[in-house]
Every structure is written in C-alpha cells, then in structure tokens.
Amino acid sequence: MTKFGVVVGSIRENSYSAGVANAIVAGLPSDAEVTFLNIADLPLYNQDYDENSPEAYTKFREEVASQDAIIFVTPEHNRSIPAALKNALDVASRPWGENLWAGKPALVASQSISGMGGMLANHVLRHSLVFLDMPAMAQPELYIGSTADLADDKGQITNEDTKAFLANAGKQFAEFAARF
C-alpha cells in the first residue's frame, strides 16, 4: 500500500484546488492511504526556529516524512505559487541537510479560473521540486483552466470529462510512484 500525501496550495474554504485534488485522488488504487497535509497553520519559515522548531513544524515534518509520494495541487497567485505552499516546501526541507521531500515522487497539478490553468504556477513549483530532489511525473500535464465553470459552489469538480481526466491522472501517478 502506498501512502499518498496531498498538498493543496490554496488554503481558502471550498477551494477549486481542493476539488481538483479530490478528483485526482479518486483515481488512486482503492488500497491507497491518502492524507491531506494541512499547510494553513504553519508559521512562516524562519531559520531561527531550526534549533527549537514550533510544534506545527514538527507535526508537518513528521507527516511529510511518513508519505511515499506527494500530490501537489496549486492555484496561481501573481504568476507564481501561493505563499502558504512555498512556506510548506521550506518548512519540510529545513534545517539545511534535512530535506524530507527528497526522493518522493510528485504529481503537480495547477488550476485557475482563467483559461491558462495556472501554467506558470505549475512550472514555478516544478523548479522548486527539482532542487528538492523530487522526481515529478511529466505527463499528463495538469493545467486545469476555467475551474469556476467546472466546479460547484463547494469547489468540487462536477464536469464529468474533467473528473475522468483527473482520475486517470491519479491512476497514472500511482503507477509512476510505484517505480520508486
């Protein structure tokens, strides 16, 4: 059984990113263990905390360490990733030399209410994952555009074609992650 951690870059209630993540998770094997990793309560990373980390850092780091593979779903904020997501990457990759992301296969999906689907956020995140030593699945590329038209008022994807596409990506990611 593979343990999949899911990191949703949007911390707002009823986010479209969470809806995309749920649609991807639907395609994972039935015996997969899925944990949504909460990034909303992490204090901003500060190197001064390396010696005596806040409890939230310790808990998050333990959750990341216990996962076999990570699914990232992010919106695009100002042509980049949200601050909360960048902070989570930093918290679990520090102190220096204790990168807990290393070696974990990753799936990157982005979404936007625009037609571009958060393409730049997707690639900004991928750049960080290269440095963090996370092999990322290259295909299919998951840029989900016009999410407001594909989801309900709770952010859940309702468009059947999009749900099927995302579930299939989840299935493919499980196969990709099994190689590691």
Large-scale geometry = globular
Biggest β-sheet strands, sense, barrel: 5 strands, parallel
Q: How many strand segments?
A: 5
**Relative strand content:** 5-15%
- Examine the coordinates and then state which fold CATH places here, giving the name of the CATH topology: Rossmann fold
Radius of gyration: 15 Å
Q: Any low-confidence stretches, pLDDT <50, length ≥5?
A: none
Mean pLDDT comes to 97
The arrangement of helices and strands along the chain is: EHEHEHEHEHH
Structural class: alpha/beta
The percentage helix is 25-40%
Q: Could you give the distance between the termini?
A: 13 Å
Assign the CATH class: Alpha Beta
Q: Helical element count? A: 6
Lateral strand order in the biggest sheet: 2-1-3-4-5
CATH superfamily: Flavodoxin domain
- CATH architecture call: 3-Layer(aba) Sandwich
What is the number of domains? 1
GO molecular function: FMN binding; oxidoreductase activity
InterPro entries: Flavoprotein-like_sf (IPR029039), FMN_Rdtase-like_dom (IPR005025), NAD(P)H-dep_reductase (IPR050712)
Protein name: NAD(P)H-dependent oxidoreductase
Pfam family, one: FMN_red
What does this protein look like?
- With 180 residues, this protein is α/β, with parallel strands linked by helices.
- The protein has a single domain, classed as Flavodoxin domain (Rossmann fold, 3-Layer(aba) Sandwich).
- It contains six helices and five strands.
- The protein has helices at residues 16-25, 55-65, 83-91, 119-131, 147-150, 160-178; strands at residues 3-8, 33-36, 69-75, 106-111, 142-144.
- It has a five-stranded parallel sheet, with helices on both faces.
- The longest helix has 19 residues, at 160-178.
- Pfam families: FMN_red (PF03358).
